[in-house]
Design brief:
The complex is a heterodimer of chains A (397) and B (259). Chain A has 397 residues and is α/β, with parallel strands linked by helices. In chain A, 26% of the residues lie in helices and 26% in strands. In chain B, the strands form 3 sheets. A 9-stranded mixed β-sheet of chain B has the order 11-10-9-12-8-1-6-7-13, with helices on both faces. Chain B has a two-stranded antiparallel sheet with strand order 2-5. A two-stranded antiparallel sheet of chain B has the order 3-4. Classes of the chains: A alpha/beta (397), B alpha/beta (259). Strand 14 of chain A pairs antiparallel with strand 14 of chain B, so a sheet runs across the interface.
């Protein structure tokens, strides 16, 4: 049976593993480490043991024949007349990975009257566009897209499949993964190829906290990963690039069990992601009334205010201003962060910022590890002083 | 009307803090809790039962201690609970978990509706709902903000999309994943707490649900954790030091370089 094994000859009962366990699943029994029923096999303890006394035994069942799986695929999301930015970001990443593995980038473009986008996808890095057009695909439906993607996976055997972690992607990707019985890693922030094994190394924040986990899918294909919009950079298009457009047939019998009765589109609101200067504030601002200084400063600079998750949870700001893994990812020219300590989820949302100035009272705050400029001090005082300085300078001019 | 509610046990804090010196996890000794998103599913299921009659069944996969949370759900109005608990289930990723839960659902027999939280706060993946629905071959709707109408044949619900919302009519049986704050979860009543102590609760092991051992736990999980690490960033920030005026002027200059 698979499981965690303690080598009794190597264990010295030092209890370091007990401290490393997030699940309280290890204790000492007869002066040796003992695994109790709470173990979830997360593997944290393995690296904690200086004596190499803990091992995880995984009995491999027969792996799928994975050698036939080759190319890197991207599911292209087409919504309301255009391809979403996240799809171009994924194509750029797929291109980079495919060049390392010397394979093709294939994309699936599904919808009604979407063929005009195919050339653009090639310009951004696709070698082959699998185009599935059908009037019945006018409205997005999970089942339609799952059927089409499953068929494409069975016929063309992708090594990897990347999907945007949008509302649609978060509903579709697990449906596909469960149908083709493969692994799926949600909300990855880093995708790399392991040069030794050729596997896709999918890194995401784990345990909701300050730990990153790198996940692999060794014996199942495709290796599926989702990435949020704005996390990865988009490449430069080259309209000279050549690629193939392959038409895919789809006949559905309209037996969908879900019917859209009404659809409301909210006019696109500008979010904190659409601005070049972001004033970001976190719990360090102390009181809700201090939000006004952030607003003032943003207004003076022609920017917008973004917040960390705790402020949304406290009700000091709304969700559309939340920066981070479960909010928006931003890539402004300048980000000034006031009173944000910098949880991993938040940091994953500001990776794209060109220049970061961070102000925090705690000189050890994780935000300083990604900031370009560090100020240790009271963020509210500095905000106020900055507003006054800019104001007086402008009146003097 | 038979509604199944999926419940997950999560750590009481969604943040694992590390001791900066020893890199070990700091525990605060607090107990684990019901995934906050699931509390809204429990409430909605009870409201549906109050309206249409029928039964609400709690379903979880977890360590034996999860019984405490299922009893808590029963003190709020869930009629009975099934806990899938076995060492062989440990280490499951979302696919293996969804498979295991589907076996739990199959022990229940016919049902109308399955409710899940949008995600669990410790994993943040939101994959279990759609994957479980796929194993059961039923449709699913994610990100449900409101259930407008429900009877044994269909549900009319409001789904929040990236660009707005949709009102959807879904034929049952189906699975919905719910956003937070869609209702106000009730507190247990004194009578409820008393009844929950004797409420029907079963713990089922892998063989009792006839689990295919190649599909459960660590063995049945396509994904594996290769390594975990505390992110480090090598880039050194330039510290702006000196009097407040000096610091503020320095920031102002940086702004000037951008504008």
């Amino acid at each position: 049976m698979a499981g965690l094994r303690i080598d009794e000859n190597k264990c010295v009962g030092c209890s370091l593993c007990i401290k490393s366990c997030p699940c309280d699943a290890l204790n000492l029994k007869r002066k040796l480490a003992y695994v109790n029923d709470k173990c979830t096999l997360c593997g944290f303890c393995i690296d904690s043991c200086p004596f190499g006394a803990i091992e995880m035994r995984i009995e491999n069942h027969k792996p799928t024949d994975i050698s036939a799986y080759k190319d890197i695929w991207v599911y292209v999301e087409y919504q309301h007349g255009r391809v979403l930015d996240v799809s171009f970001e994924l194509i750029n990443k797929a291109r980079e990975l495919a060049d390392i593995k010397k394979v093709n980038v294939c994309v699936a473009l599904i919808g009604n009257k979407v063929s005009s986008e195919a050339q653009k996808l090639i310009a951004y890095g696709a070698d082959q566009v699998y185009l599935c057009e059908n009037t019945k695909l006018e409205k997005y439906d999970d089942e339609d897209h799952t059927v089409i993607m499953t068929k494409l996976i069975q016929e063309h055997r992708p090594d990897m499949l990347l999907i945007g972690a949008t509302g649609v992607g978060r509903s579709l990707a697990p449906r596909i993964a469960a149908r083709v019985k493969t692994g799926l890693t949600a909300d990855c922030t880093v995708l790399e190829i392991d040069l030794e094994t050729g596997l896709l190394m999918q890194t995401r924040p784990a345990f909701g906290g300050n730990i990153m986990a790198t996940i692999v899918c060794p014996n199942h294909r495709p290796q599926m990963a989702s990435v949020r919009q704005g996390v990865l950079p988009v490449g430069q298009p080259n309209y000279e690039r050549l690629g193939d457009i392959i038409h895919v047939d789809y006949q559905n019998e309209d037996k969908s069990r879900i019917k859209i009765i009404e659809e409301m589109l909210i006019p696109e609101v500008e979010t904190v992601a659409d601005t070049e200067i972001v004033i970001a504030v976190g719990r360090g601002i102390g009181e809700q009334k201090n939000m006004e200084y952030a607003e003032k400063l943003a207004k003076l600079l022609g920017g917008k205010v973004g917040v960390s998750r705790p402020l949304v949870d406290l009700g000091w700001s709304d969700y559309k201003s939340q920066i981070g893994q479960t909010g928006v990812s931003i890539s402004p020219k300048l980000l000034i962060a006031f009173g944000i300590s910098g949880a991993v989820q938040h940091l994953s949302g500001i990776k794209g910022a060109e220049r970061i100035v961070a102000v925090n009272t705690d000189s050890e705050a994780p935000i300083f590890q990604v900031a370009h400029y560090k100020v240790v001090g009271d963020c509210v005082e500095i905000m106020k002083a900055l507003i006054n300085t800019i104001k007086s300078e402008r009146t003097n001019k | 009307m038979k509604t199944i509610v999926c419940i997950k046990q999560v750590p009481s804090t969604n943040e694992v803090r590390l001791d900066p010196v020893t890199s070990t996890i700091i525990r605060d000794g607090r107990l684990s809790v019901t995934n906050p998103y699931d509390t809204f599913s429990i409430e909605l299921a009870i409201q549906i039962k109050e309206k249409l009659g029928g039964e609400v069944i709690g379903l979880s996969m977890g360590i034996p201690e999860t019984e405490r949370l299922l009893r808590d759900a029963m003190s709020r109005g869930v009629d009975r609970s099934i806990l899938l608990s076995d060492r062989a289930f440990a280490g499951a990723d979302t696919l293996a978990t969804a498979y295991t839960l589907s076996l739990g659902v199959k022990t229940i027999g016919a049902y109308n509706l399955i409710l899940c939280g949008k995600m669990a706060i410790d994993g943040d993946t939101g994959q279990i709902g759609p994957e479980l629905a796929e194993y059961l071959k039923i449709p699913h709707v994610t990100d449900v903000k409101e259930v407008l109408e429900v009877n044994e044949e269909r549900v009319i619900c409001k789904k929040i999309t990236d660009k707005g919302h949709q009102i959807l009519e879904v034929k049952l049986p189906a699975l919905l994943t719910l956003l937070k704050d869609i209702n106000l979860p009730r507190l247990p009543s004194i009578l409820g707490i008393r009844q929950s102590l004797d409420a029907p609760f079963v713990l089922k092991r892998a063989e009792e649900v006839r689990a295919d051992t190649s599909k459960i736990g660590l063995i049945g999980s396509p994904t594996q954790v290769l390594k975990t690490y505390v992110p480090k960033n090598s880039s050194e920030a330039i510290e702006l030091k000196g009097s407040q005026t000096k610091v503020v002027n320095a920031i102002k200059d940086i702004i000037g370089e951008v504008n």
